[in-house]
Write a structure and sequence with these properties.
The chain has 16 helices and no strands. By secondary structure, the protein is an all-alpha fold. The longest helix has 32 residues, at 9-40. The protein is globular and about 60 Å long. The chain starts with 8 loop residues before the first helix and ends in a 12-residue tail after the last helix.
């Protein structure tokens, strides 16, 4: 994969920065979950922590994206890492009570949303147009791979340190990431609009509503996640209740999607350029949804694991297809706002899926929940495919002007 990105030194600095900070994040999440569980003993408190990290930033997606479209992308990313690092140091030093901790986690997650929108916007300025598929695949493989091993490293670190120590390590990764990002070359950006910050945020939403192809993709992505995100909640019940697995077997199932993601990104780094990106996205929708549907019919732990690996392959297709397509068709002056709104909406969809899927799980069982999620995702895939076709194949991709 790296061979296809030779000469893109700036991209590899971004890749290293994302990798080290994502690894720190996965360590820090484990530490915070254990701290909250130990301090409160309440499942609700753990749920609130997850919502603060995933759901709350989605409410600020429009504003988060506007930051990257108004300011220098390199400075925005460095600033976001410094903010996250300082907040994490504060958590390590104080170990605040739950209400304060939730606010700190939410603010840090909003900064992460600003960073994500800016980093996706920066990609076309760091690689050639024909390298975008490989670059997005490499970024996905690196971040997901390190995120997958983070909990294992956290388990080892708990043998020699405590929650504070792991949070200090988490904070250090943000500062290392900021140093890496400071090595980036200057990234071209569009001329500022000259409007107010709120006007820019509103204009970003208006563009998505007017651009039918972008709107169709965003709504489809949101709906697929709203159906399928419940697998995180239902997996342990499927493993323990229906498949009669042990704690170790239950934990193994959660690795399935991560394995599929890494393999999928490695394959796509070589072959994604053979597809139209909206087509790759739709294949990803279908495969990831089918993976959940058939997981609901699994007869053994190993079968469920294999099917979740397939689901991970589909998610990698969604990631590369959506990001690459939007990087090509969205005007540079609006790109951060589109990504901020998109991933903010995906965070909201995940929160909705946790709540509504949890209610379905409570009223039925894990098999029914998986089958319903997968069937709903497949239905969304069909509707989205019709919408993409009617919008002119998702807008014709054109080479990004550097």
């Amino acid at each position: 994969m790296r061979g296809g990105l030779r000469g893109s030194v700036g991209f590899w600095w971004l890749w290293g920065a994302r990798g080290v900070s994502v690894l720190g994040d996965s360590l820090g999440l484990v530490a915070l979950l254990l701290y909250v569980q130990g301090a409160t003993g309440a499942a609700l408190a753990v749920g609130l922590l997850l919502l603060a990290g995933d759901f709350v930033p989605g409410l600020f997606g429009a504003l988060a994206g506007a930051v990257g479209d108004r300011f220098d992308l390199k400075r925005v990313m460095v600033g976001c890492d410094l903010v996250q690092g300082v907040l994490t140091v504060g958590m390590a030093v104080v170990l605040p009570p739950l209400p304060v901790l939730l606010v700190m986690v939410a603010v840090r997650s909003v900064a992460a949303t600003v960073f994500q929108a800016a980093s996706r916007n920066a990609m076309p300025g760091l690689v050639k147009d024909e390298q975008l598929e490989a670059a997005n695949s490499a970024l996905g493989a690196g971040t997901n791979g390190l995120e997958a091993v983070g909990p294992l490293i956290a388990a080892a670190l708990f043998l020699v340190t405590d929650v504070r120590g792991i949070l200090v390590i988490d904070a250090a990764t943000f500062f290392v990431s900021a140093v890496f990002l400071s090595r980036l070359p200057g990234i071209p950006r569009a001329e500022p609009s000259g409007h107010s910050f709120l006007r820019d945020a509103r204009d970003g939403l208006g563009y998505i509503w007017r651009a039918k192809a972008v709107r169709v993709i965003g709504i489809g992505f949101f709906a697929v996640v709203a159906f399928n995100g419940v697998d995180d909640v239902a997996m342990v019940f499927l493993a323990k209740d229906e498949l009669h697995g042990s704690d170790s077997a239950s934990a193994t199932l959660y690795a399935g999607v991560g394995i599929g993601l890494i393999v999928g990104f490695m394959i796509l780094g070589r072959y994604a350029g053979r597809f139209k990106m909206p087509t790759l996205m739709l294949i990803g929708f279908a495969v990831s949804s089918l993976g959940n549907l058939v997981t609901g019919l699994a007869w053994a732990i190993w079968a469920a694991l294999a099917l979740q690996v397939i689901r991970g392959l589909g998610i990698s297709g969604v990631d590369v297809g959506v990001n690459t397509h939007l990087q090509r068709v969205v005007p540079a002056r609006l790109r951060s706002r589109v990504f901020g709104n998109l991933y903010g909406a995906i965070g909201l969809a995940a929160g909705i899926s946790y709540v509504l899927g949890g209610l379905l799980l409570q009223q039925t069982d894990a098999r029914t929940t998986f089958i319903t999620a997968g069937a709903g995702g497949l239905l969304v895939t069909v509707v989205t495919a019709i919408g993409v076709r009617r919008s002119g194949d998702g807008e014709r991709e054109r080479p990004v002007r550097r």
